[in-house]
Amino acid sequence: MDIQEKVIILDFGSQYTQLIARRTRESGVYSEIHPCTITPEELKALQPSAIILSGGPASVSSPDSPGIDPSIFEWGLPILGICYGMQLMAHVLGGKVAPSLDREYGRSDLHFEGHCPLWETLSDAGKLTVWMSHGDHVLAVPPGFSVMAKTQNIEIAAMADVGRKMYALQFHPEVAHTEQGDEILRNFLFHVVGLKSVWTMSSFVDSMLQALPEQIGDDKVVCGLSGGIDSTVVAVLLNKAIGKNLHCIFVDNGLLRAGEGDEVIGYLRQHFDLNLHYIKAQDKFLSRLEGLEDPEQKRKIIGYTFIEVFEEEAKKIPGVKYLAQGTLYPDVIESISFKGPSAVIKSHHNVGGLPEKMDLALVEPLRELFKDEVRKVAQELGLPDFIVWRHPFPGPGLAIRVIGEITDERLEILRQADKIVQHELMASNWYYKVWQGFAVLLPLKTVGVMGDERTYEHVIALRIVDSIDAMTADWSRIPTEILGRMSSRIINEVKGVNRVVYDISSKPPSTIEWE
Ligand code: XMP
Q1: 460/414 Cα distance (integer angstroms)
Q2: Lowest model confidence (mean pLDDT) among 198-212, 232-246, 321-335, 373-387
Q3: What share of the chain is helix, strand, coil (3-state, %, to 5)?
Q4: Catalytic residue list contains 172
Q5: Rounded CA gap, 389 and 394, in Å?
């Protein structure tokens, strides 16, 4: 997409870098994250309206810390440095940075000093509660800069060279714990840089409907539909853009939950004139998974079987040139990001390798969007709530929720239990309040008693979490009556289950899925 005004965020490895991008976009300003290792030429070619330097775990005083080309500060662009970004500005521009022995982590009271355009519209002028997470701090500002705020612990918690439009904050305005942090960022974007709030999802849809036909021409596109929101939005957008040249393939791998996929596919069939190829491949998937317990092995087999089935079907469509995928911006960032200490924990790749194997070019209309933006696009496209707010469902499906061996019997137990969880979440209106809720079948049996009989049966775990992006999550405080109803219905209605437990772990250190 050709976007006129954009903010470039240089990533120095902070866990909050994505949040900076989300906050600027929520304010209606398009932003992109690039690694701090970008060259000045590459950066210039992006034509930024402003640059934000993110935080990061390094210390500017250590020899292998990530740096920045000093010439960037001479371009006349407005620059905002956050945390490590501030220390780097001080270090490069002639100030002094002091290493601290102790990290300051958590809330801090910020007191304003002097007149700063970033504080201009804040309601409680004078002081703010802000979120700090740093080791080093600035001891002396560079020439031309003034101190703009202090805290009880540090004398220079914000600095600015107003004339050169350079600002730096030791705290994190992008995190929710910083009071009026959004407003501070907006003051930078609108008052300092002078940007306009034009990045909306309706403008995104308009520009995509223009760009996609130009990119694709009269060629054919094949698209894998999973029933989830990302692939559904890709399909509907392409359907509007290129009509019958889009071919959608839905693969039933036998690992779907009750109604998963079918509801969405049914809706799309009814409301859109899609070329839909519905492939029943349950036997192929389930026979290959027989006897396997290792989750990574399950994921791999499901991944390559999907590619095989998909490729076989796609080959039947003559003249396909493109593969459409629902890649989102976090996947793009993950692949380019500056690797700090955060490591990838689990492999989530579902269809990796497909484009190379089939020699297809990629169409990824959502690759600039965050999940919340995709939901807004879905609303713009007129999709109903049950699609827009559908809980995420993993590509490997129930294979990663039936812990241990996958058998028809165990899949059926999980499907029935999960159906009750979904039903009770919907009936109590909690479905739309939580990020994701589902049942997990554990690989053990425990003792119970039914009538006068001792039973020895399966355990179902309920996993219901609140999250904004699945990167962190907390267990949902679902009213105990609802949990109780889920439990008694599952034990009474699902044959083979005599115990239900509720998972009260947060991510991190746990994950959302059980494996
Ligand atoms: P975790 O378990 O890593 O999950 O906390 C985060 C989010 O990702 C989903 N998930 C997957 N999605 N393929 C997918 O498409 C996968 O292999 C996979 N594993 C986890 C999970 O449902 C949650 O929303």
Answers
A1: 8
A2: 321-335
A3: 35, 25, 40
A4: yes
A5: 15
Out of 27-36, 77-86, 99-108, least confident range? 99-108
Closest CA to 367 of 334, 338, 331, 393: 331
227 known member of a binding site: yes
* Six token digits for residue 349: 């790749």
One DSSP character per residue, 213-237 reads HHHHTT-EEEEEE-SSHHHHHHHHH
Question: Domains of the chain, with CATH numbers?
Answer: 7-192 (3.40.50.880), 201-388 (3.40.50.620), 401-502 (3.30.300.10)
**Is there a catalytic annotation at residue 177?**
no
- Residue 420, number of CB atoms within 10 A of its CB: 23
Least confident of 23-32, 217-226, 253-262, 418-427: 253-262
Known catalytic residue: 174? Answer: yes
What is the CA(145)–ligand 1 centre distance, in A? 46
Contact indicator for 434, 465 with CB cutoff of 8 Å: yes
Beta bridge partners of 167: 80, 160
* CA pair distance 286, 298, nearest whole angstrom: 10
pTM of the model: 0.84
* pLDDT band of 351, cuts 50, 70, 90: low
pLDDT of res. 114? 82
**Tens digit of pLDDT for each residue in 421-465?**
999 999 999 999 999 999 999 999 999 998 889 999 999 999 999
pLDDT tens for 236-278 read 999 999 999 999 999 999 999 988 888 899 999 999 999 999 9
Distance, CA of 432 to CA of 382 (rounded, Å): 18
Which 3-state string (H, E, C) describes 272-311? CCCEEEEEECHHHHHHHHCCCCCHHHHHHHHHHHHHHHHH
The Cα–Cα gap between 448 and 445 comes to 10
Q: Is 230 annotated as a binding residue?
A: yes
The answer to whether the beta carbons of residues 136 and 59 sit under 8 Å apart is yes
Closest Cα to atom 4 of ligand 1: 512
DSSP secondary structure string, 418-454? Answer: HHHHHHHHHHTT-TTTSSEEEEEEEEEEEEEEETTEE
